[in-house]
TrEMBL record:
This is AI-2E family transporter. It comes from Akkermansia glycaniphila. It is a multi-pass membrane protein. Belongs to the autoinducer-2 exporter (AI-2E) (TC 2.A.86) family. The keyword Transmembrane helix applies. It is found in: Membrane. Residues 357-377 are annotated as: Disordered.
Length: 377
C-alpha cells in the first residue's frame, strides 16, 4: 500500500503542517519577546563587539577578563549615553515645538486653507484633518514626547540585563570557538563549521553596518546644521539608528527634518534637505555599503524587505534592526533541513566575489582556556 507521504495529497498536507507550525513558532516568539529580545540583543552586541576584545588581547596584551570588562564598559557608555541624550533632546523638542514651531505651523496651515478654499477643498481637508490646533495641540505633543521618553527610559532599563548577558557571551566566546573546532575534528556535527562561518559573516556585517550608519548620522547632522534645521544632533542620531533598518529606516529618518525645513524655510529648503538625504543614502547605501559587504549573505533584496516587516511584527524595533542577521541564521537552518531546503534555494541570491575587510574573527585558546593570557595568532 502506497504511503500518503508519497502522494500529492500527502505533500500538500506536509506543506500545510509546515505553514501552521511556522505560524505557531512566530506567535510563540512574539509572546516571549520580553524574554527573548534582551538575549538576542546581547548576542548580537557581543558578536559586533568581539573584535574590540580580540584587539585588546592581541595588541595590548590584556588578559581575557580585562579585555571583556573594557569592551562591556565601552558599550555601556555608548548605550547609556545615547539613551540619556535622546531623552534630553526629546524634552527640549517638546518645549521648542510648543513655543516656536506650533505658531509657525498654524500660519502655514491657515495659508494652505486659504489656497484650498479657492478650489473648494478647504471643507473636505478640515473634516479629515481638523484644525491646526487639533493637529499640533499640546496634548498631542506631550503624548508623542512621553512616548519617546518612555522608549528611551525603557531602553535604558533593559541595558543592564543586556550587558550582563553580553559579558558572559564575550567571556565564553573563545571557549565556544575551541569547542567548535573539537566538534568539527571529531565529526560530531558536520554543519557546525558552516554555522560558525555564518557568525563571522554576521560579525562583519554588524561592524561595517555600524560604521556606515555612523557616517550616515554624521552627514545627516551636517546637512541639517547647514540648512539651519532645528535639533540637527537629534536627526543625526535618528539617521544613525534607523540606518540599520534596510530601506524603510532611511525613509523614516528623513521625514522629520524635511517637514521641519518646510515649516521654517519653505518648499525650497525642504527640497534641498530631501535631496541631501537622497544623496547621502544613495552614496552610502547603494555605493559604499554594497562594495564593502557585497551580497555575502545570499538573500534576495525582496526577502530582506519582507524580513524587516516580519521581524518588526514579532519583536518590534529590535527585530527590524536585526532582521538581516536573523534572516541569515534562519536561511542557514533551512539549508540544513532536508524538507525545507527548497525554501532556502528559493530566496537565495548568489554572493559576489568582492573581498571583505579583514576583521578579527572569533579566536580560541586551545588547551589554555580564555583566561590564560593574550591570544596567540
Amino acid at each position: 500500500m502506497t504511503s500518503c507521504t508519497n502522494t500529492p495529497l500527502g505533500d500538500g498536507r506536509r506543506v500545510l503542517v509546515t505553514i501552521a507550525a511556522a505560524f505557531i513558532v512566530f506567535a510563540g516568539l512574539q509572546a516571549a519577546r520580553d524574554i527573548i529580545v534582551p538575549i538576542i540583543l546581547a548576542s548580537f552586541l557581543a558578536i559586533a563587539s568581539y573584535p574590540i576584545t580580540v584587539s585588546l588581547r592581541k595588541y595590548l596584551h590584556f588578559p581575557h577578563w580585562l579585555a571583556v570588562c573594557f569592551t562591556v564598559l565601552v558599550d555601556f557608555g555608548f548605550l547609556i549615553g545615547l539613551g540619556f541624550l535622546i531623552n534630553f533632546l526629546a524634552k527640549d523638542l517638546s518645549i521648542e515645538v510648543q513655543t516656536t514651531y506650533q505658531p509657525l505651523f498654524e500660519t502655514k496651515y491657515n495659508d494652505l486653507m486659504l489656497f484650498l478654499s479657492d478650489h473648494g477643498l478647504d471643507t473636505f481637508v478640515q473634516e479629515k484633518l481638523g484644525s491646526a490646533q487639533d493637529i499640533l495641540s499640546a496634548g498631542v505633543i506631550m503624548s508623542i514626547t512621553t512616548a519617546i521618553m518612555g522608549k528611551a527610559l525603557g531602553f535604558i532599563a533593559i541595558t543592564t540585563l543586556v550587558l550582563i548577558l553580553m559579558t558572559f557571551f564575550l567571556g565564553e566566546a573563545p571557549r565556544f570557538r575551541s569547542n567548535v573546532d573539537k566538534i568539527t575534528a571529531s565529526r560530531g556535527c558536520p554543519n557546525i563549521r558552516k554555522f560558525a562561518d555564518a557568525l563571522q559573516g554576521i560579525q562583519r556585517y554588524l561592524v561595517i553596518k555600524t560604521l556606515i550608519s555612523l557616517t550616515t548620522g554624521i552627514l545627516a547632522w551636517g546637512l541639517c546644521k547647514y540648512m539651519d534645521v532645528g535639533f540637527a544632533l537629534l536627526w543625526g542620531i535618528v539617521a544613525f539608528a534607523l540606518n540599520f533598518i534596510p530601506t524603510f529606516g532611511s525613509i523614516v529618518a528623513a521625514i522629520p527634518p524635511i517637514l521641519l525645513a518646510l515649516l521654517i524655510g519653505g518648499i525650497s529648503d525642504a527640497v534641498i534637505v530631501a535631496f541631501g538625504y537622497i544623496v547621502i543614502n544613495f552614496m552610502l547605501g547603494n555605493g559604499i555599503e554594497p562594495l564593502l559587504l557585497g551580497k555575502q549573505f545570499g538573500i534576495a533584496t525582496s526577502v530582506v524587505l519582507l524580513s524587516v516587516i516580519l521581524w518588526g511584527w514579532i519583536w518590534g524595533p529590535i527585530g527590524m534592526l536585526l532582521a538581516v542577521p536573523i534572516s541569515v541564521l534562519v536561511k542557514l537552518a533551512l539549508e540544513n533541513s532536508k524538507d525545507l531546503k527548497w525554501i532556502a534555494m528559493m530566496i537565495d541570491n548568489p554572493p559576489t566575489t568582492i573581498p571583505l575587510p579583514k576583521i578579527p574573527p572569533y579566536t580560541a585558546d586551545p588547551g589554555n582556556g580564555p583566561d590564560k593570557g593574550p591570544h596567540k595568532s
